[in-house]
Predict the 3D structure of the following.
Amino acid sequence: MTTKLTKKEKEFCALYVKLRNAREAAALAGYKVMPQINGIRLLSREAVAKEIARLSRLESAVNEAAAGFRRLAFGSVSDAVRLLDGERENLEEMDLFSVSDIKIPKGGGMEIKFYDRQKALECLAQLETSESTGSAVPFYKALEKSVDFLSGTPEYSSYGGDDSDEA
């Protein structure tokens, strides 16, 4: 039998994940009388422990997504440029995280597709906004947008190759 948490208990869980302090989380969630005791009592409940674990996993996912978007938005493309210059001996050591696709056209040259830095910044801003407001709904929307971004068509950066089909 699963016990539903009240709004106040859910607030405690969210605050506890953020603060990692039972007394402070209980006081801020509205448990004004004996917040220390109420915090400990809440932590001992299975439903509360499960919600805290769930929120902790979400927080971890947000942190991972934010790290990836920071890397896309602010990462260097110098290794991709080295790749264009024909430097392929140390391919495994190159940081090509921001590269979405590499094509070698029939006419020669190389076409490198990068993820859109502006979209990465927008996704990062959404993740950080949802984190600062403590709202789960914007978090899910930001993750959905992130998935759309990663599966969408990134911006092209073309170098070399046969340009005969361009106007």
